[in-house]
Amino acid sequence: MINALTILLILTSLILIVLILLHRGKGGGLSNMFGGGVSSSLGGSTVVEKNLDRLTIGAAILWIASVIGLGLLLKR
């Protein structure tokens, strides 16, 4: 069980790094490199950005759950 949670933690950490780098900041970010540079005038957020936000939040929840699970298992 500890090995599975460790692998999940490593995978979600790498996924979070990539997803966070894809977000558009003030200066553009890496999302411009992949065609995310087109901005919408309605609300300032495109459908791609909203989906990227959802993916990032989902990955963060998995990351937090794996950290808590590992902490509880290793505490014993």
Main features:
76 residues; 66% helix; mainly alpha; 2 helices
Written description of the protein model:
This protein is mainly α and 76 residues long. The protein is 66% helix and 0% strand. It has helices at residues 2-22, 47-75.
Summarize the structure.
With 76 residues, the protein is mainly alpha-helical. It is built from two helices and no strands.
Shape: elongated
Tell me the series of helices and strands, N- to C-terminal.
HH
The share of residues in helices is 55-70%
Structural class: mainly alpha
Number of helices: 2
Model regions low in confidence, pLDDT < 50 over at least 5 residues: none
The major beta sheet can be summarized as: none
What's the total number of strands? Answer: 0
Radius of gyration: 16 Å
Q: Quick check: average pLDDT? A: 83
Kindly estimate the percentage of residues that lie in beta strands according to DSSP.
under 5%
Terminal-residue CA separation: 13 Å
Give the helix/strand layout.
Blueprint: H1 2-22, H2 47-75
Helix pairs in contact: 1-2
